[in-house]
# Entry
Amino acid sequence: MPNPARLLPALLAIAASSALAEVSVQQLDDRVRVELDGKLFTELRYKDTPHVHYWPVIGPGGAKMTRSWPLDEVPDEEHDHIHHRSLWFAHGMVNGADYWSEAATSGGKPPKHPVGKIVHDKIVKAEGGKESGEIVSAQKWIAPDGSVALTSTQRLVVYSTPESERQFDFEVALTAGEKEVVFGETKEGTMGIRIAESMRVKRPRGHTPGVGQILSSEGLKNADAWGKPARWVAMSGPIGDKPYTIAMFDHPKNTSHPTRWHARDYGLFAANPFGGSTMEKTLPPGSGNVTLKPGQTLTLKYRFLIQQAEPDAAKLNERFAAFAK
# Structure
């Protein structure tokens, strides 16, 4: 019979590895902070920004999963696409205005269309718990002329997870005001994340070659995954000496499911339900447009899974099936 004294350390180690982190949510003066077992996971940032966003996003082992710039200056980070603020929801064509780009640019061309802003209105709910924590916040989409084109409610649910992974859901309800709202087709959108620089498929000149990978649920990799419909897409690569994978799942009830993906080799990773013919040239122009009548609401749901592991398509399909239910 095994010696109980010898078994105890192993049992304690197993229990520790399988323990779930409690989620705490704290509303501060200018942000909402989410922690897992007392350690920062992310913050909803909404002050002095053209669009609300979540930064940083911390993965297993304390890894910073998203690019810091333009929120912070970190060595060896590219300063392209100033509007890629960690994790965010926006779109590049709403009633003719661009809510994806920013008026200020960094070494790039100015936006082709008038630029709007997605501004914070109020915190509806900020609550932690042993199984999950939740932030519900309201926004106003301010058109270039100062009018409110539509309103939105973002819901972030962060789940208690083992140390080896992080899982959270993002849901947004988009509601038209007194006038019709048209989400126009453009590749510039929509549920976006800008991953850590070390995970990129391609690195800038003068840097070591990129070793990251893009993988879709349809088995497409890297550039082949761009603009193609898929139930999920995963980006993977190293942070430090560890492999990491970030997967985003598109809910089956979302419009245009399976969505098209604005997934780029330089680190942008976005689900775009309004891409239409700008992402698939065989489609007729305008096929990606979605129109909301006055007062009508469109709801979109996504799940994010972060793992300290190489991507496993079979397991990601299982996790998608669980989300789909």
